[in-house]
TrEMBL record:
Keywords: Cytoplasm, Isopeptide bond, tRNA processing, Ubl conjugation pathway. This is Ubiquitin-related modifier 1. It is found in: Cytoplasm. One of its GO terms (biological process) is tRNA thio-modification. The gene is URM1. Belongs to the URM1 family. It comes from the Eukaryota. The lineage of its organism: Eukaryota, Fungi, Dikarya, Ascomycota, Pezizomycotina. Coiled coil: none annotated. One of its GO terms (cellular component) is cytoplasm. SUPFAM superfamilies: MoaD/ThiS. Pathway: tRNA modification; 5-methoxycarbonylmethyl-2-thiouridine-tRNA biosynthesis.
Amino acid sequence: MNDQRKELFILEDNVRPGILVLINDADWELEGEETYELQPGDNIVFVSTLHGG
């Protein structure tokens, strides 16, 4: 991941609370989280579950 934007997604070496990570439209927890090895053509999406009021 580009270090310039890493702080948007990572906090203390973990994905920030409120960020949903999808690998090929599946929750990354179902794919093994950090043990998953990215494959060519994988689609990675970061979704914020937080919103203002």
